Amino acid sequence: MEKWRISRHIVKRSSTSLFKSLLSTNFEKSINTSGSTYKSGRNCNPYVEHYFQCQKRHFQTCCHPLRDYTGNLHASKATNLEHICRIQYKSFGSVATQIQRNPSFSTLNSDDVDHFKKILGEKNVIQDEDRLLTANVDWMGKYKGSSKLLLQPRSTEEVSQILKYCNTRCLAVVPQGGNTGLVGGSVPVFDEVIINVGSMNHIISFDEVSGILVCEAGCILENLDSFLVNHGFMMPLDLGAKGSCQIGGNVSTNAGGLHFVRYGSLHGNVLGLEAVLANGTVLDMLGTLRKDNTGYDLKQLFIGSEGSLGIATKVSILTSPKPSSKNLAFLACKDYLSCQKLLQEAKRKLGEILSAFEFLDSQSMELVLTHLEGVRNPLPPSIYEFYVLIETRGTDESYDKEKLEAFLLRSMEGGLIADGVVAQDINQASSFWRIREGLSEALVKAGAVYKYDLSLPIEKMYSIVEEMRLRLGQSEKVLGYGHLGDGNLHLNISRPNYDDSVLAKIEPFVYEWTSKHRGSISAEHGLGLMKANEIHYSKSPQTVQVMASIKKLLDPNGILNPYKVLPHNILYPEA
Amino acid sequence: MKIMVAVKRVVDYAVKIRVKPDKSGVETSNVKMSMNPFCEIALEEALRIKEAGLASEVIAVSMGPAQCVDTLRTGLAMGADRAIHVDSPATLYPLSVAKLLKALVDVEKPGLLILGKQAIDDDCNQTGQMVAGLLKWPQGTFASKVVLDKEKQVATVEREVDGGLETLCLDLPAVITTDLRLNQPRYATLPNIMKAKSKVIKKVTSKELNVEIKSDLEVVEVHEPPKRKAGVMVSSVDELIDKLKNEAHVI
Predict the structure, then answer these.
(1) What is the CATH number of domain B2-226?
(2) Where are the domains of chain B?
(3) Which residues in A340-367 are b (16+ Cβ under 10 Å) and which e?
(4) What confidence score (pLDDT) does residue A574 get?
(5) Can you tell me the ipTM of this complex?
(6) Which range, of A117-131, A272-286, B213-227, averages the lowest pLDDT?
(7) Nearest Cβ partner for A420 among B15, B74, B190
(8) Residues of A numbered 356-415 whose beta carbons fall under 8 angstroms of chain B's beta carbons: which are they?
């Protein structure tokens, strides 16, 4: 906590100067007396009305908690000011990330540690500073928690015992897998106990006839794929993080990936799940049946719940036969309209063999060429406005290649493609994929990145990138790339360092824009911590209320991955 | 001056190969096949020489079953002008390939014959040297740099040898085999793929070339290398020293 004191002063100063003219004196007083805490909201509906009213106010471009502040000023009650605790700031010191540690959670003590050691054994209870450091920081280095304990259970039974204990003791926990999430959902916010399922990495069974794989949640995606390759099968999802991400995490975040356009969502591919609830109950939903219409399909709740409803311990997933022929084309288009038309044509002409359709713009290409090693421009010497990656997978190599080449040549004659290359062997294909898959990595290497993952109607998708460029000016690098085939844009703003004034121009403009076009503010990355308070941009208040009820039902003490996914004012209403 | 480039269709470099259950060879059915990486580099060098104006035509040659045509198509898509496919259903070993290449060279009369230094399936590293011997042409193998002088009709070749780099000056016509660091092969662009559709692939047989293909090598058995034993975790330095001394006998 001490580490953040310096940033807190800066924040206090900047926040007070920012709002001096705008806010009532009450607000300032409460900032100074309570040490810049804020109270969480109460009942949803009146709050939401306040919320939307606040949108219209002048300071709407600034951080959310302060917006909450002004909205709730009138309803401010003494009870909440009593719950003053430590303040957590994100490592880049943004004002927008002011959260208060929920005081109803207990603090870890040595009895707890001893109890865990009894359950797991000495080796799997980690208090070592260095190992805790990696577990406390997310992949982008953007979110940092201060957990003092990392647990590594090796079986569902151990997870159950840990959670049962934590529930009775009211200790908050963070389920963690590969820690490759991009919205801060996999790391603690304060001192939550980290439960890392990485040691549960056994493959339980695989049926070669049906292609159904049953494995533990800690299996790394790439390892599962390697195992399946030997049997002639493949995982239905593929993402850049495959070397580190674990299947439990993939399922909990309903990961999309590069082959979504062909194999669909995990909601369809996951046939069964074993999850442990907050009170230690093991829910065995580990079916291996394609069709099972007996009662409510509970596992769907857990898929995409980001660890807030239960910890996934085993997954049963439908895999597909590995297609023997893969073809990849890396194409250049001169404008976004051509990309859209190309997608239409590809879906029509390539049909069943189309397995991936990705796009990236010229700024993305330039960034990758600058920051990634061993990457070269497939279409030298110029940088085109847009690049499209089309992958086909099928069973007959020469037939697929002919089909793809015929399609490409016709599209080129039709003016949709400016230029393009077709990979002639697996190495060339990997190097083209590296350009698209390495974008996240290149962005992290380039410095600070503001990352947004939006689902938008395809015609409008690139407009947000252009508008953001106008809004932020020439000096900021705004990149647009993503899964064009699924209508999923990854909007990234890359800068040498984080800067709150830039953030203020980006948020909430990007969310409002998305909401206006009826898009999703998180297509596949999830809400995590980053967008925990933004769900209203994409979901109605009533649906959010039902979500909160479900959360309350399955996790009454709220110990599973607190402060994330659902808005704080709903998760922690005043009693 | 014409340049002839020999290319081979092999199992793709990135594929995990498996040995056939009867141990007669490597599993090649249902496995991705591509142009040998060293042959790609050879073709790229030929194309660069042509683009520099020092050659008029690049001819790609491949020998084997009908599917070799796919590899030749890739060569044409990279920029070769025409291709020759020597149809031979039987497996060809380096000496046979060298004899066939000599016959083709006698017909086409190129000024330069460029090959990859070795094929990644058999790792023989023999064809280039053998064909140079049969033709009685000078050879520059493991080339990492090639500079052509048209007037003097010489090629200066920098070779990667065990001790470092050796520079040779070869009178043309000559045989050059290429090594990894010579260049980075280009990708097959769509316009070139389009042009390749109209380029000619001529088919010949060994009989037409008056070459008798004898199998002078016979593969007796192919088996996988012994599996690596799992590592052993030791719990202390003393145990490590004990193991090094008494089990591994290295200290």
Answers:
(1) 3.40.50.620
(2) 2-226
(3) bbbbeebeebbeebbbbbbbbbbbbbeb
(4) 59
(5) 0.87
(6) B213-227
(7) B190
(8) 376, 378-379, 397-398, 405, 408-409, 412
